[in-house]
Write a structure and sequence with these properties.
This protein has 230 residues and is α+β, with helices and mostly antiparallel strands. Helices cover 24% and strands 23% of the residues. The chain has helices at 16-28, 32-35, 92-95, 110-115, 125-135, 173-183, 187-193, and strands at residues 39-47, 50-65, 68-74, 83-90, 107-108, 139-144, 160-164. A 6-stranded antiparallel β-barrel has the order 1-2-3-4-6-7.
């Protein structure tokens, strides 16, 4: 992980008093939503309007049900990782219920999975492939809030729609080699192991993956609706 994509966060170190308070509250309070996280997926996202800006994305996911899982996205799996975004992953069945105006905001996972670049760190191949065979058929909607790739040390600017890789030649080689080295992987070998997998039953929807175009979040000034008197 480069220092550019893991910028220092401004602020004073956590004092002993705060650390003790956190320890106390952690022992008392429940953390139901985060306790449902059961899975770590690693992949790469790029900004929908700029494929040259590619980010390593660590997804920590929990299922809502068999057809939807939701993920917190960090820039690394370490304890000091930056929470940079979220992703919702849904089945093809649910994707097809979305209005056409919504579909371009979602990306496919078929290429990511079958190429090997989407993986589950530390999980053995057979177990990993059992779940990724399902992921291969899904659609995801990813939004990043913190643009760590440009060195922002705080989450600045507007949330941005992210997309996923859809074909060979898109991912920067140095990013792929770095991840393969750190995790002891071979994307090429995993591609062979996953050749039997298939994507969405009805094929990739033409409106998915931004319909082949760019999507960018931009501000627009509007009137703020006042509270109506009762």
């Amino acid at each position: 992980m480069s220092s550019t994509q893991h910028p220092a966060v401004p602020g004073e170190p956590i004092p002993t008093g705060t650390a003790l308070l956190e320890t106390t509250t952690a022992a008392i309070q429940g953390f139901g939503p985060t306790n449902k996280i059961h899975q770590h997926l690693c992949a790469f996202h790029f900004y929908s309007d700029d494929m040259t800006r590619q980010v390593e994305a660590h997804h920590f996911c929990g299922h809502q049900n068999e057809e939807m899982r939701q993920c917190l996205i960090y820039n690394s799996p370490e304890a000091d990782a930056r929470l940079i975004g979220i992703e919702y992953i849904i089945s093809e069945k649910l994707f097809l219920t979305l209005p056409d105006s919504e579909k371009p905001l979602w990306h496919t996972h078929e290429f990511e999975v079958k190429s090997g670049v989407l993986f589950m760190p530390g999980i053995s191949g057979p177990i990993e492939r059992q779940d990724l065979d399902k992921v291969c058929k899904t659609y995801g909607k990813a939004i990043h809030f913190w643009q760590v790739d440009r060195g922002d040390n705080l989450p600045l600017g507007l949330p941005q729609i992210m997309m996923a890789l859809t074909r060979d030649g898109q991912l920067y080689e140095h990013l792929a080699l770095d991840v393969e080295k750190r995790y002891g992987l071979s994307f090429a070998k995993e591609r062979e192991n996953r050749a039997y997998m298939s994507g969405p039953e009805h094929g990739i929807h033409p409106l998915a993956n931004a319909a082949g175009k760019g999507v960018k979040t931009t501000p627009r000034e509007v009137e703020c609706r006042p509270v109506e008197s009762v």
